[in-house]
Amino acid sequence: MTESPPMLRLEKVEVVYKKVITAIQGVSLDVQQGQIVVFLGTNGAGKTTTLRAISGFIGTDDAWVTEGRILFEGQDIANWPPQKVANRGIALVPEREKIFETLTVMDNLEASVGAGASRATRKRMIDTVFDHFPRLATAKTRLAGYLSGGERQMLAIGSALLCEPRLLLVDEMSMGLAPRLVEELLDHIVTLKKTLGLTILLVEQSAHLALGIADYGYVIENGRIVLDGTRERLGGHKDVQEFYLGQGGGDARKSYREVKQYRRSRRWYG
Amino acid sequence: MQVLANLVVLTAIYALISCGYVLIYRVSRVLNLAHGELMMLGAYLLFTLASLFKGGPELAFAGAVGLSLLVGFVLYVVLMRKMTGELVIAAVLVTIALGILLRGLMVLIWTARDLHPISVLGWKNPPVPLGGGTSISSVALATILVAVVLYLALMLFFRYTRWGLQMRAVGERPLLAAQRGIKLHAVYALAWALSTFSGGLAGMLLALDSGLGSTMVIVGLKAFPAALVGGLDSLLGAVVGSFIVAAAEILAIHFIDPLISDVVPFVVLIAMLLVRPWGLFGTKEEIERV
Lengths: 270, 290
Ligand SMILES: Nc1ncnc2c1ncn2[C@@H]1O[C@H](COP(=O)(O)OP(=O)(O)O)[C@@H](O)[C@H]1O
Ligand SMILES: [Mg+2]
Hints:
The complex is a heterodimer.
Chain A: E1 8-17, E2 21-31, E3 36-40, H1 47-55, E4 63-72, E5 75-76, H2 82-88, E6 90-93, H3 105-112, H4 119-132, H5 134-138, H6 149-161, E7 167-171, H7 179-196, E8 199-204, H8 207-213, E9 216-221, E10 224-230, H9 231-236, H10 238-243, H11 256-263
Helix pairs in contact in A: 3-6
Chain B: H1 2-28, H2 35-52, H3 57-78, H4 88-110, H5 117-121, E1 127-131, E2 134-137, H6 138-160, H7 162-172, H8 174-179, H9 184-210, H10 215-230, H11 235-255, H12 264-275
Helix pairs in contact in B: 1-6, 1-7, 1-9, 1-10, 1-11, 2-3, 2-4, 2-9, 2-10, 3-9, 6-7, 6-9, 7-9, 10-11, 10-12
């Protein structure tokens, strides 16, 4: 299969925490320009670590990309500091600690607009966010710490957009939110992709909703990619049906690993 | 009445010094225990520049203030920057070592003699009558004014400027701030520069009023309880804390014994730590337990 060079390519990436804990190993994945790619995996599989490896660690994380390359538009950005990655065109909506709770909604947005933007530009950019998320406009002067879960997520996405990214990384958006709300947010993601021409890498635990909007998907287990394919292929895959779409029936509590050991030859990438 | 005037002056002095602790703590959770020495360094810089520019005392003063700002910036860039990512306690230990080093250097350069920059500058310090037989020195009056202006300026700065907003953001969540493209090191360097600026200013005013000697470090240390009583991450808290510590100190001087004046702030500090470890205005969650 031949493809145009991807916008983002991870090549056998390994991340080590505190110099001893290897969280992901040999992770390779491609994100094509203009696609929504979903990244599936259970708790502790290494999804957040992968996104953080792309968006950059700071000293207190005590984490490093120890192997492999992270190519964004052809340039290796592995171990760049987060502010440099953000300015390069990649924004992250983190899993937790995604907004400044002691700041108002407006200040959260103001703080995220790149340096050097004039007052008029900042206002225009923030108004665009309000167009997408009118609920934020009505909560402008409220402290972000008092927002509801859904509003926090909107604020986090809105703030990330103000970094003017070409690639948006979104970590477990659905966590702790009602399914209705998740659907609404996923609709927003699709709209953003279309109107802003964004490319999106979306991390989720459940394939249920995410796979519906994705062009392509990867499954990570224990720090390694175990499966990948188009939405159709993943959605039709027995393992995914059983463990990420909850359609297995019967003994659904079996671990994914048990199944994959008898059903599929191991497919390590790297 | 005189007691009240003294209380206001002492509050202003502590407030001027303690905001330096607050600025750095607020953005980086680091306690800069070299603040007293840095304040003294500001005063020595004033003395030296005053000797150099005999003709222009204003120039010497402005130069010393500018250099104080620069000192904080340089300290962050060459020393404290290396500490990012290390434990907060390690950074605090570095500031203690820095303080000891600075004290030694200052004795080497300027000797341990008491100096009087005001006479070198050729300025006078006449008492200003406040009515009812009360008076304070001109420099003390200037100290009050400077403290008021500085606090107002800082509050406006935090509230209305982009740099101030970035400092608040970094103070709450440095990682998220970095992920939003904010340059962490620039923000930290600015906090250090503002801190040594305000501390240096305090040291200079103190030295103009009562001379320059090793006791100044004690004054700097006494402002630390003032900052902590207020909660360390709040400017308003620093003012209130400064007032409480100054009041306790002045009451002790009047009703107990002037000799214990240097101890009182630390008694207040211990009392505070026992009752409300996060201070009057501090954020409760953010205390890192030991
Ligand atoms: N800061 C950290 N220090 C040490 N180990 C970590 C840290 N963060 C994550 N890990 C480990 O890395 C692995 C992957 O975690 P994570 O990327 O958060 O998974 P996911 O997001 O898929 O739930 C887990 O085993 C976790 O314990
Ligand atoms: Mg995660």
